[in-house]
Structures are given as structure tokens and as C-alpha cells.
Specification:
Pfam family, one: NUDIX
Order of helices and strands: EEEEHEEEH
Number of domains: 1
Shape: globular
Protein name: 8-oxo-dGTP diphosphatase
GO molecular function: 8-oxo-7,8-dihydrodeoxyguanosine triphosphate pyrophosphatase activity; 8-oxo-7,8-dihydroguanosine triphosphate pyrophosphatase activity; 8-oxo-dGDP phosphatase activity; 8-oxo-GDP phosphatase activity; metal ion binding
Number of helices: 2
CATH architecture: Alpha-Beta Complex
CATH class: Alpha Beta
Largest sheet: 7 strands, mixed
Radius of gyration: 14 Å
GO biological process, one term: DNA repair
Bound molecules: 8-OXO-2'-deoxyguanosine-5'-triphosphate
CATH topology: Nucleoside Triphosphate Pyrophosphohydrolase
Cofactor: Mg(2+)
Number of strands: 7
Length: 130
């Protein structure tokens, strides 16, 4: 059976723009865009996992706000359960430690990059202001 992996993603909004991060070319889903975050460890609360991942990946402290949606998506390499949360930055800067690029996009611009398929449901909700 395929691996079932629980993942959290942060939808960080600042000045009406949303932080979008581009995956590394050597990883699964190469060059695709996603929300920063990652796998929940055993016994970890989703919100704590999100704060930890943002520190590890972007050297960025966040406050986790409302949950957006949980989507289960079956890739060929794993089944991913992605839960997205709105979040706000506490730190005022970002250091890209794992992603190859980042962009701040308005809701209207979100379709201008190629999102990981598991993210599409969240993108639709965000575009509709949910
Ligand atoms: N962080 C994050 N991961 C996502 C999103 N959408 C999506 O399909 N994923 C997938 C990519 C990865 O397979 C997995 C998250 O794993 P990870 O971030 O901890 O680890 P990773 O990039 O090294 O992934 P992997 O190469 O081990 O598969 O979830 C998203 O919006 N944010």
C-alpha cells in the first residue's frame, strides 16, 4: 500500500499578498509551487508542526490562524493529506533554506504558477476569500 503522509501548509498573508514557494528541482513534484510546511511528526499537533517547519525551512516565526481545508491527494509516490492554515509572520524576514524561489502573489495572481495538485482545493478557497 502507498505511504499515507500527513502534511501541513501555511498560507501566509501580508499586505493582501500570499507567500508561494517553489519546490526544488531534485525533489518529488520538482519545480512545482506549494505552501511552506511539511510532514507532521508522530505525536505532533498540526499547528506545532507548521511552526517548526517554517522555522526549519524559512527561518521564520509564524502565528497559526484559521484552518482552510484538508485535501487528500493520491500521487504516484504517496497519498498526501494536506491541511492548510492561514498564518501570519512574526519575524520580518524569510531565508529560503529549501525552496528554490518564492513569490508574494495577490489572490488574482495565484493561477500564474503551477501548483502541486494537492493544493488546488485550497487555492480555490483562498481565491474565493474563504
Ligand atoms: N509543504 C508542502 N508539501 C506539499 C504541499 N502540497 C503537496 O502536495 N505537498 C507534498 C510534497 C511532499 O511530497 C509532501 C511534503 O513533504 P516535505 O515537504 O516534508 O518533504 P519533501 O519536500 O522532502 O518531500 P519528499 O521529497 O520527501 O516527498 O507533501 C504544500 O502545499 N506544502
Amino acid at each position: 500500500m502507498k505511504k499515507y503522509v500527513k502534511v501541513v501548509g501555511a498560507v501566509i498573508e501580508k499586505d493582501e499578498k500570499i507567500l508561494c514557494a517553489q519546490r526544488n528541482g531534485e525533489k518529488s513534484l520538482p519545480n512545482m509551487w506549494e505552501f511552506p510546511g511539511g510532514k507532521i511528526e508522530d505525536g505532533e499537533l498540526p499547528e506545532a508542526a507548521l511552526k517548526r517547519e517554517l522555522m526549519e525551512e524559512m527561518d521564520c516565526e509564524i502565528n497559526v490562524l484559521d484552518k482552510i481545508v484538508t485535501t487528500v491527494y493520491e500521487y504516484d509516490f504517496a497519498t498526501i493529506e494536506l491541511t492548510t492554515y492561514y498564518a501570519e509572520m512574526v519575524s520580518d524576514s524569510i531565508v529560503l533554506r529549501e525552496h528554490q524561489d518564492m513569490k508574494w502573489l495577490s489572490r488574482d495572481e495565484l493561477d500564474s504558477v503551477e501548483w502541486a495538485p494537492a493544493d488546488i482545493e485550497a487555492i480555490e478557497k483562498i481565491k474565493n476569500g474563504i
